[in-house]
Design brief:
By secondary structure, the chain is mainly β. The chain has a single domain (2-99, 110-162), classed as Beta Barrel (M1 Pyruvate Kinase, Domain 3), CATH 2.40.33.20. Helix content is 13%, strand content 32%. The strands form three sheets. The protein has a seven-stranded mixed barrel with strand order 1-6-5-11-8-7-13. Strand 9 (135-137) and strand 10 form a beta hairpin. It comes from Streptomyces cellostaticus.
């Protein structure tokens, strides 16, 4: 399974959206160079308030570009970086990957998928009603999160739009992604 990067985004200041860039640099064990969420320990404000020593399992946020097309069907216009993601992809079922999947991005970078993004009310501040589009209920009644996946950087490198993303599934029994 493989796909490609369609956009990369980062922001050195706390903001819901992130501007698109020509490239971003992933730093092993830290995240996106210069991004406010980079670091060994948690950087999201709500998590820092709970326990600032927690490991940062949310160093990199990836989202599938196909989501933008899905929400457009309900009248929402969303572009790359606008939901706070660092890497926008196409052609990969990010939400269907198991925990521990390695994403080999471009020539060098490797991101390990740690879990699902837990979207918050800021999505509705961005566009009222959008939160219901990215968090819903499946046919079995369970909550379904569609706002992308989070990961940690295992091997650093430069990532650019157009880069190939190769998926390497973990060995052994697969664990479904949970919120991180």
């Amino acid at each position: 399974m493989s796909g490609n990067v369609t956009a990369v985004s980062s922001n050195g200041e706390y903001s819901f959206t992130k501007p698109n860039r020509e490239s971003i640099t992933l730093l092993a064990g830290l995240g996106v160079e210069g991004d406010v969420h980079a670091g060994v320990t948690v950087k999201h404000r709500s998590r820092v308030a709970q326990d600032p020593t927690q490991p940062n399992l949310r160093q990199v946020h990836l989202i599938h570009e196909e989501l933008f097309e899905d929400v457009a069907g309900s009248g929402f216009r969303v572009g790359a970086g606008e939901l706070g993601e660092n890497i926008t992809t196409r052609g990969i079922d990010l939400l269907g990957l198991p925990t521990g999947t390695l994403l080999r991005i471009g020539d060098e970078a490797v991101v390990e998928v740690t879990g699902l993004r837990n979207p918050c009310a800021q999505i509705d501040n961005f566009q009222r009603g959008l939160l219901k589009e990215v968090v819903g209920r499946g046919e079995d009644g369970r909550v379904v999160y569609r706002a992308g996946v989070m990961g940690v950087v295992r091997v650093g490198g430069v990532v650019r739009p157009g880069d190939l993303v190769a998926v390497e599934l973990p060995q052994g029994p697969h664990r479904a992604l949970e919120r991180v």
